[in-house]
Amino acid sequence: MLTALQLQQQRRRRALPSLRQQYHEYILQRIEGYKNSLTRRELLELGDAAATEMAATDGEQFLLTEVLLTDWVDRLIHRRLRLQPYSRWAKHFRALRQAQREPTHWGIDRRCPITRVLPRLEPGDTALVIGADSAPIAFLLAAYDVEVVFTGSDMTFVDQVESRVAEEALGHYCSTYVAPTGQVPLGLPERIQIIAIDTATLDAQTAGRRRQTLEGLMERTAPCGVHLILPSARALAPDAYLSHYGDWTREDAPPEKRRPAKSVGVLLGKPPQVSEVAPAPARSRDVPA
Q: What is the pLDDT of residue 256?
């Protein structure tokens, strides 16, 4: 998300990973996800099966090490999951990514304000997505090569998001964390281009804590960056939080002939630069005669 001002200050962006790098990341995440779904007993049985298979390999002698056993376990899981070879995966990948870049692929309403941000995205942009109802936004942004961090307070739901990320081959772009609302995980840059949060997450906080959270997120947002406030069931409408945003600009969609039954979200843009208050002139001190 570059403006003329950002072009002058732009840091060097990392190169996009190759298809083969993304394939290896996809395989790794699927295998790790499978391991995490097993009980300790099932993991031990899998290790025994791998050791038996290694011992039965004709014509080869192995020094059984933890690294070698882990590698053999991964091979077993690869076969169990019937993961595609690289050539077939690469052919399928481009069509998959094109589908993933459609908001409706993730159940996102086409009127959602995030659709107005998509043409402005560039590989290497960063996003922080907070709350269960914001998860589809994390998937969509990751499909556009945005570096996404998704946080939630429910470990079970965050695990589900992580599994979906792996299944959709988005693991290179989307990381997941269990974290308190408003806490920015380590590793994100000082300034973030996009922050999305749902109203259920905000409603769960006290008024003072909510203000503190939003002010902290606004501080971490890059100049000309955006905040997306998404609606949640049985929570205040996104418009209820506009008073927190002072000199930010609401980026409204073109008016529709029929007013939607409920809000699909609010998009707010941070000013290009925040004006600083000039320091008060120093008081002159009387010089003793």
A: 63
Adjacent-strand bridge partners of 221: 192
In whole angstroms, give the CA distance from residue 131 to residue 74.
33
* For range 232-253, the mean pLDDT: 89
Residue whose pair of structure tokens reads 């000013």 in the numeric block = 271
Domain ranges of the chain: 19-83, 102-269
Supply the Cα-derived Rg of the chain in whole angstroms: 24
Scanning the chain, the segments in alpha helix (DSSP H) are 4-9, 19-36, 40-55, 66-81, 86-100, 114-117, 135-143, 155-167, 199-203, 207-220
CATH classification of 102-269, choosing from 1.10.510.10, 3.40.50.2000, 3.40.50.150, 3.40.640.10? 3.40.50.150
Residue 3 has pLDDT above 50, yes or no: no
Residues 263/239, Cβ–Cβ less than 8 Å: yes
pTM: predicted TM-score of the whole model, two decimal places: 0.71
Q: What is the mean pLDDT of the chain?
A: 82
- Cα–chain center distance at 32: 19
Model pLDDT for residues 24-52, shown as the tens digit of each residue: 888 888 888 888 888 888 888 888 888 88
- Type of residue at 54: M
